[in-house]
Structure formats: structure tokens, C-alpha cells
Amino acid sequence: MKHKIMILTIITFLLMIVPIVTAAPDYTFKIGEDANFIASCDIDGIPCNPATALCNLTLRDPDDNYVVNFKPMTVKFGGDINYTLLTNQITQIGNYPGKINCIDSGLNKTATFIMAITPTGEDAGYSLFLILAISSIVILALGMFSENEYVGFISGILFIITGIYSLAYGISNLTDLYTRAIGFVCLGLGLIFMIAAGYKVVEGILGENAFLN
């Protein structure tokens, strides 16, 4: 029975995480701050000329709504191009797919990218979520195989923390209904393991008192 619970828990996590594997973002900015987005423009290896080049930015939010719809960017000498995104434009944590289209001297070039908006301004990726999730599973396994209810109770707490993290910050820079569902699943598993372990602890205490009497 213990093995079946462990296998079911591991399979559940794999089924939840695999569908949201995404490419690493090309640019990362912090939520709540203006984002000065800077990229480079060159066509056939030649930097775009500010006097002749026209570059336009298109950006969508994690819900696939337009944040910027084909708006002109500033072209600078050396081929740098930039566009400043205000805080009221980037209000969600997650990945923002974008596209830049540049025309210079009759030549055209289009590039796609992924911009991530995170709580810290750094690409957190799966790191913290995986640490929490793996720790929860490992401690759950230790609790089951050692038949230690207290260790099982701790694993339940870790599952709950994992769920709260997923609900608050998402997974791999994604925050949507799917990551929230994962958060609720983790919360549910945590509550189940905590209640089961707590029941065993209380049962053991009552059993010891009955024996002493």
C-alpha cells in the first residue's frame, strides 16, 4: 500500500509538471517596475541605421492579450533598439511572448522572443518549486518506510508550502489556471497527509494511555 501511494504521488507530479516545460526566457524583468526593453537590430549582419530603420514591437501577456500591438521602437546608433514598458502594462507574473519586425533600406527581418516578468527580476525557473516538491516527496517516503507519523506530518506541511508557492508565484514563470490547479493539488495532498499522520499520532497516544491504565 505504501509503495502504491508513493508511485501515485510521483506520477501525479510528473503529469502535472511535464506539460508546462517551457523555453528559458530571453529577457527577465521585475513585476511592479518599468521595464526598459533593449534588443539589437541587424539585417544581414549590418546594424540598423537610426535614420532609415523602422522597428515595431508586438508583445502579448500570459493570457495571450496584446500588451503592445506593433508599436514603433527607438532605434539607436550601433543597432540597439528599445521600448519602455510601464508597470500598468506588465501587471502579471509569467512569460510574455513577443515579436520584433525591422525594416531598413528595403530589407526586412523578424525575430521572436520570450520576456519573463518575475517577483525578483530574475529567472526563477523550476528551481524553488522543484526543491519544495522533491523535498516533500522524499520526506513523505521517509515517513512511510520508517512508519514515523511525525515525519509524515512534516511532509504534509511541505506539500502545503509547495502549493502556496505555486499559487503565489507560479511555476517556471507561468501563472495561469493550470499552475493554480497544481497549487490546489499540492494543498490537497498536504492536508491529506497531515490529517492521516495526525490521526496516527492521536491513535498512538490514546493507545498508550489505555495501556497505562
Please give the radius of gyration in angstroms.
25 Å
Element-by-element helix/strand order: HEEEEEEEEEEHHH
Principal-axes shape call: rod-shaped
Q: How many domains?
A: 2
Q: Report the strand count.
A: 10
With helices defined by DSSP (H or I, 4 residues minimum), what is the helix count?
4
How much of the sequence is in beta strands?
A: 25-35%
Low-confidence stretches at least 5 residues in length (pLDDT < 50)? none
Strand order of the largest sheet: 1-10-9-5-6
Q: What is the distance, rounded to the nearest whole angstrom, between the alpha carbons of the first and last residues? A: 33 Å
Give the % helix: 40-55%
The chain-level structural class is alpha+beta
Largest sheet: 5 strands, mixed
Quaternary organisation = single chain
Average predicted local confidence, pLDDT: 81
Keywords:
single chain; 213 residues; alpha+beta; Immunoglobulin-like; 2 domains; five-stranded mixed beta sheet; 44% helix
Characterization of the model:
The chain has 213 residues and is an alpha+beta fold. The chain has two domains: 110 residues; 92 residues, Immunoglobulins (Immunoglobulin-like), CATH 2.60.40. It is 44% helix and 28% strand. A five-stranded mixed β-sheet has the order 1-10-9-5-6, with no helix packed on it. Helix 1 packs antiparallel against helix 2. The chain is rod-shaped. The two termini are 33 Å apart.
Topology:
Layout: H1 2-17, E1 27-30, E2 35-40, E3 42-43, E4 46-47, E5 54-60, E6 66-72, E7 74-75, E8 80-85, E9 94-104, E10 107-118, H2 127-146, H3 149-169, H4 177-212
Parallel strand pairs: 1-10
Antiparallel strand pairs: 2-8, 3-4, 5-6, 5-9, 7-8, 9-10
